[in-house]
Amino acid sequence: MKRLGPGLILALVAGFAFLYLPILALIAYSFNASRLVTVWGGFSTHWYGALMHNEPLLDAAWLSLRLACVSATLATALGTLAALALARHGRFSGRTLFSGMVLAPLVMPEVITGLSLLLLFVAADIERGFWTVTIAHATFSLGFACIVIQARLVGFDRSLEEAAQDLGATPLITFWTVTLPLIWPAVAAAWMLAFTLSLDDLVIANFTTGPGATTLPMRLYSAVRLGVSPEINAACTLMIGAVAIAVIAASLLLKRERMAGG
Question: What's the predicted TM-score (pTM) here?
Fold first, then answer.
């Protein structure tokens, strides 16, 4: 195995420091006993206790969790159908257009996605709130879910499905009893990825939300505009922990899937 040179190691250390030192500083200052963010007053968990009594933040966190669960489920279900169409039906008519439409939100700037969805909801006279944000998050997460599940389906041994159908199973029964159990790690990883994307989104939610549907990132952004407090640092630390757990779980599931597939 080729060893990394000193210059490359130094570049990697500098890169990781640039990415993670600000996050580590935020986590450290969430345990700051002082009310002043930039003045260290000793170790304390006081702000985590205060956070548990901050009803606006708790309501926003509960809304974000519900929204992320529903939108991730929608995105995963639709992403699974799209991945099946792309992986199972070869080069059908309009395949390139279909693939481009499914994956377009991956490269589309979030401002454009949010603005276009806002115009759609206004034109359709749909009241903005929980469900409009859910639809918006499911829309831009669908492409990510499709890519993860399609990668699993491409390497799938189709002889198992053909054997089930030779024994009389319908395509729907074959999917539920053979295909889905074998690709579930990819489906679960896609769900966790969509959940993380929804939990983290600020831009699209700002365009598509309405009264009474303020998500946690929106609440934190509004609070930061008035000044950073240790309480906000504590909320951000909990959010970082939730996202990190979801990303690690998704990585472990994908690793297990690769090992199972050889």
Answer: 0.79
